[in-house]
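Components:
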Amino acid sequence: MGTKDTLSKWLRASTLGLARRLTLVLSALIIVFVAVVIAINMQTQRVLLAERMAYSADHLIALAQEVSMPHLLENNPAGLEVFFEQVGNQFDVEVIYLVSPRRWYLAGGGDIEANFLSYIADPLIERAFATGHRQQVFESEVLSIAAPLTVGGTVLGILRLDYNQKRLVDKMNAVLVNNLLAGFAFLLVGLLFSRWLASRLSSPLIQLTQAARSAADGNLDTEIAIKSKDEFAQLGAAFNAMMQNLKTSMYEIHRVAYEDKVTGAPNRSWLNNQLEHLTLHHAHSETSFAVMFLDLDNFKAINDTHGHHVGDLLLRSFSRRLARCMREKGLILLDVASDERHLADFDKNEAVLARLGGDEFTLIVPSKKADALATHIVSEMARSFKVDGCHITNTTSIGIALFPAHATSREHLLKCADVAMYQAKRGGRNTHRYYDHNTHTQMKERSALERDLEQAVEQDNFQMYLQPQFEVQTGKLDGAEALIRWEHPTKGPVEPNVFLPVAASIGLLPKIGQLMLAKAIEAAATINRRRDEPLIIAVNVSIEELNDDGFADMVKHWLDLHDAHPRTLEIEITENTAMEESAVVEHQVAQLRAIGVRFAIDDFGMGYSNLGRLKALAFETLKIDRSLVTGIGEDPASESLLYTILDMAKAIGADVVAEGIETAEQLLFLRNAGCGHYQGYFGGRPVPADTFARWVLSQGDGPASAPGMRSAS
Ligand code: C2E
Ligand code: CA
Ligand code: CA
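Structure:
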């Protein structure tokens, strides 16, 4: 930044200075030129002056001698008068006259004084007569000459001349003033000319400078048009070529930085720029737009089965189809080439399509278009893609977050769209969902629960409670059901019906099941070691656990470890699990039944049982669901169903445990109906395993009364 500023300031200063300096230099040159011309002129004049003076004097004397001589010989002074008058009229001749050997004035011109007309006494003339030679004196700028005119050694007269140099100098000065005036006029014209020339010469430079400054400010479209045919024009052309190259390179750099290599769509950085700009510039406007988060529903599986090459091709086709869908909905897509421009005009239906990475794509579209577009995309993407010769079907889930309704910052918008996308996935995939705050809260709570559960499993923070089961007729304790309990570190006890489905969804059930089985088998061993009549401990086992090949071995391992009799363990499987035919499950069940482990069908009456299968399974126990028991004394239909179930159980030779007995009336009904066993708050609530064990061991084998509950007898 600093360097750029200094550079442009320097360029500006030096350019203006250049024009000024050029003017100065040209002016100086002209001044020197004029001065030199004047000086030379004056010098020449001075030399000429001296020469002229000497020459003029000599010339005049020679001329006068020549003209005077015949008149003197003929003694005709009047003839001389015309000539001398002419000479005397010359501006530099002060006076000229001729004197006879007797010193009489003969003829003259110029400033002739009256006394000249008589005898003339002049020292210079006297000297000339005396010597017979020319005499001259220079005094007060007057050159005085006396020259004898002789014929054959005889002096015929003396020519007397006063030559005034001052007059010549005055004349010359007048010429000098004219020279100076002309010089100044020339100088003025010269200055104006040099100013014009300087600006003409520097204008391409200024143009170049401005262009360079504009380019330095980042304007790559800068161009110079210099019309001259000189080096400046070449420089201008070179500059334009350089800018063109720069533009091409900049675009290439831009493309590499902002284009996704697989699909050619804009990438995450570009999307982030756009979103950042949008959220900043529309913070206080009415604009509303939608951020749509797209995710292919089965991309990972496709990548795994067909390889990454096909995966990439699919992404490319997907991206292309996506762009088509957007255009079909009247949207205009911005691409990375629109570098300077940010998405702003939603009224013109401008939109953005970017690939975030993996199989995730993000769109920014006007809010009003979002719904129809999402529906269109989901239905279009459900059609298969032809990739590398194979037909691949891959549906899409879309999450939509609205600005500013759902979020106003870039990060938050993307997060909301992402959450909405997960909501769409949970909603069965191949669909779209708008962001929903409540669902988001639930999701957050759920993922917190998931994390806590993982930790609980790692640290075995679960407890086992035991709920007693009794013989209906005698009220005798004959078993207990192991029920899991989890004390959340901050939320307190969490219901099994709440946390178990969550554990199931993240695959934790088998681990939890192992922990419970170990505890239950240990409890069965501990309790039964001190009893004559065995107490059966029932454990709830999920389909996930049974589906594991090692399940039976694991159970056997715990039985061996605690030296527990297999017959004291009953495994409860829900009705629906039991009805499902699975080779693995059946194999596990068969192995355990072979060593004497008992099996019960839990929650019977809730699902749909197949009588044939029930008979084939031949499980030891049927546990009638609490929902049927609550109908006793109130709902004749439930009562008759209970009778039917009891009859059927008798027919297939299974024991029946009625669950959820809370009242004496319900127990009485069971007794009259001939039900074998019961379990419920009326007999006893689930209590911690050690409490249960202590209580059991304090009782005999007779009719029992669970802690805090009335006797069942
Ligand atoms: P479930 O197997 O039907 O267990 C009986 C449920 O009924 C227990 O609920 C028990 O506390 C409750 N209950 C017993 N008597 C009464 C009564 O008189 N009135 C009422 N209202 N309820 C009664 P809990 O302990 O909340 O367990 C709920 C379910 O969680 C169980 O239903 C079972 O399906 C599952 N579960 C519990 N522990 C385990 C476990 O260790 N492993 C697995 N896989 N599932 C378990
Ligand atoms: Ca159960
Ligand atoms: Ca049950």
